[in-house]
User: Fold this.
Amino acid sequence: MNKIRRRINKHGFLGFILSSKCLFLLPAFILIGVFVIYPLLLAVGYSFTDYYLLKPNDISFVGFENYTEIAQDKYAKQSFVNSTKYVIFIVPLQVALSLFLAILIAKKSKVNTFFRTAFFSPYILSIIVVSLLWKNILDPELGIVNVFLAELGFAKQEFFANPDLALQTISFIILWQGISFQMLIIMAALQEIPSSLYEAADIEGANAWQKFRYITVPSIKDQLVFVLIVVTTGTFKIIIEPLVLTNGGPQGSTSSILLYMFEQGTRYRQIGYSSAITVVFALLLILIAFVQRKLVKEE
Amino acid sequence: MEKFNVINFLKILLLIAFTILFLFPTVWMFVSSTKSVAEIAKEIGTIHSFIPNFSNMSSWLDPYKEMFSRFNFGLHFFNSVLYSCVIVFGSLVVNSLAGYALATFDIPFKKYITATLLILIIFPFQSVLIQIFIIINEMNLTNTVWGLALPHIGSAFNIFLFMVFFKKIPKELRESAYMDGASDWQIFTKIAVPISKPIFMTIGILVFVGSWNDYVWPLMVFTETNKYPLSVAVNIMNETKPIYLNQVMAGLTVTTIPILFVYIFGQKYIMPQNSTTGIK
Assistant:
């Protein structure tokens, strides 16, 4: 009996299934299957139906109707544009500022440890805390910023109620929190650059810009690409900040793709339509991942 | 002598400006949580709103006491601790087992399994919230810890991190134990896990912070308000009239303190070292 089992064990799929090794993988496979793969398949399936949450027994196939509706839905389009705007406002600034601050405080010293801790501090606040904190700070009547603006003689600003300002305000808040961690990653990379490189450049008479361009940037390219990827995908996934700060308003001006998907699914209970948005979003993520692979491979 | 040139002076000035920008909200949050509403309103816009009132230290905790009794904050705090612990424990066990199996066993189709996991990392949890809710609802798990925790436990990303770490354990270590008659399970629990404390700490911290900060999913799973975690409770607090700013700030401070401790104690496990967590 044991012999047979050992023989099966050595060979093939069946042997693996019967062995205790399989138990190592089983829990993770079940959970990922049920809560990662199955929901993705469900989203694809539902996206071709008119599934309405309150009528789960009355689902019919509607073909690509949900997708053509997205193309015509002005608010859906707006949420895609908004997400792109978030990326444009946040990603370049976040990468540039994290790099800039990292360079300023990379050198190990007591003063820099203080600055590092100060710059890192927003990271320990959770997104909900950051959102509520800034909601109060930027309050039109009682917020510190507006009281301060008034003292300086400026007009009070409706940071969240003004459609021309709300998205920028949320971008700023996300940026304010996001810089810290990226800065630490870049700083760790900067500290690994051998100082002999800079000394050699000094002897050659290179100026600060040349040193930055030809030594610093090439040495930390990997980390910069990593930061770029993390920040870009992270920014496309924004949902909590607009949900808590503006609920997507005013006039849909701050709603992100995921927030619009969420609203369609929960408030309007249009599961079919919401699923179609999820699928379009997933395709967008695949496209981004594809571009990133190209970017990384080129190096 | 070079130290006092104009550029260095500007640099320090700039650093101080950024320090103020990054610190003032958190300082204001903490300081406001120790004052009365009248004090906050009176001092707003002045430097005093960033300085605690040291002549009145005995009343610093008043807003906390009021907030805890008015919003049943202790219960929500307990909820958050419970949910985070279940998710951390679950994901450490489940993902380390799978990561270990992929790193060391001869598994059929291993290449494809790993490739699938890498692809799954692309899709964030938030993008399939609605579908996961439908599944949890079908399983009758809404308003339960399991409904909240189960979807958060299995993680392709964490399996991948564990796998990369376990791959670095020398083969010889396992083989000699195997010769001595140890089973896979014994090798895992007696050898692999004890020498892998850093990766367990790192992932444990990441998962803890992630679940402590989770907001949208608990909002969907729980309809009974007494089951809300802190993140949801604190938002309700900020909307419940009359709004007392000092209580809100006390709530935000209490929500932050556990994370602060986690970062202080786990510092060396989360600071980025000379690598990009193995992703390229």
About this structure: Chain B has a mean pLDDT of 87. Chain B is about 70% helix and 0% strand. Chain B touches chain A through 80 residues (CB under 8 Å). The domain at 72-240 of chain B is CATH 1.10.3720.10 (MetI-like fold).
